Amino acid sequence: MEREKQAQIFKALAHPTRLIIVEKLLEGERCVNDIKDLFDASQPNISQHLNILKYSGIVDFRKKGNLRCYFLKDSKKLEKIIQAIK
Predict the structure, then answer these.
(1) What CA–CA distance (Å, rounded) separates 81 from 44?
(2) Number of folded domains in the chain?
(3) For residues 23 and 39, what is the distance between their CA atoms, to the nearest angstrom?
C-alpha cells in the first residue's frame, strides 16, 4: 500500500501545471484565484489539477468565506522531492 501511495504522489507531480502549483505552495498557502492567476487556464482546469493533488494527499484546503485556500500537507517532504528532481 505504501508504494502505491508513493506512486500516486509521483503521478500527480508528473504534470507541469501541478508541479508549478506545488512549488508555489512551498512559499505558503494560496487561494484558488491566486493559483489561477499564475496560469493561462480556466478556473475549472486549475480546480481539476488541485483535486488531483488533494486526492494524492499532497494538498488540503481551508475555506475562507467563499474561497478555498490550499496548502501542502507535508511541505518538508515535498521540498525534498522538488529539490531532488531539479
Answers:
(1) 27
(2) 1
(3) 13
pLDDT digit string, tens, across residues 53-72:
999 999 999 998 999 999 99
Q: What is the dihedral of CA 32, 4, 13, 75, to 10 degrees?
A: 70
Give the residues of the chain that fall short of pLDDT 70: none
Among residues 42, 44, 43, 38, which one has the least CA distance to residue 19?
A: 38
Q: Note whether 71 and 61 are within 8 A (CB).
A: yes
Asked if 82 and 58 count as a contact pair (C-beta separation under 8 A), the reply is: no
pTM, to two decimals:
0.92
Domain harbouring 53, CATH code: 1.10.10.10
